[in-house]
Amino acid sequence: MHNGEHLLGLRLGWLSTEKLSASLLVLVEVPDAAWLQPGITYRASPNLEFTVGAMLPIGGRPTSEAVASAFDDPAGQLQYITIPQSEFGLYPTFFFMQLKLLGS
């Protein structure tokens, strides 16, 4: 199986109050990785929304492997290649904020 060949996704949303909502996006790369994206949105007014969230990859991080040079290198230097362990393991964890001005 190749990375990213089989993905399952689910998005959940919850409206706590008229002004506050939460969401969760879950992507699963069968069989060994996932992507979680939780978020909270606050609607300050009919024309203004503020969202905070995170993008959380779960999966094996890449490894490095030393290989001999493809060219005839008299010094015998090794080159290092990166070997992905999972598609989502290639991404960093990061957080975000969004301020959205809505038209009336």
TL;DR?
The chain is an all-beta fold. The chain is built from no helices and seven strands. The chain has a domain at 7-60 and 88-101.
Roughly how many Å apart are the termini? 49 Å
Order of helices and strands: EEEEEEE
Reported for the largest beta sheet, the result is:
5 strands, antiparallel
Helical amount: under 10%
User: Total helix count?
Assistant: 0
Shape: elongated
Number of strands: 7
How much β-strand is present in the residues?
over 45%
Mean pLDDT score, rounded?
84
Low-confidence stretches: none
Strand order of the largest sheet: 1-2-3-4-7
- Please compute the radius of gyration using only Cα atoms: 21 Å
Q: How would the blueprint of this fold be written?
A:
Blueprint: E1 7-15, E2 20-29, E3 33-45, E4 48-58, E5 63-68, E6 78-83, E7 94-101
Antiparallel strand pairs: 1-2, 2-3, 3-4, 4-7, 5-6
List keywords for this structure.
single chain; 104 residues; mainly beta; five-stranded antiparallel sheet; two-stranded antiparallel ribbon; 0% helix; 61% strand; elongated
Structure description:
The chain has no helices and 7 strands. With 104 residues, it is mainly beta. The chain has a domain of 68 residues. The strands form 2 sheets. The chain has a 5-stranded antiparallel β-sheet, with no helix packed on it. It has a two-stranded antiparallel sheet with strand order 5-6. Strand 3 and strand 4 form a beta hairpin. The chain is elongated.
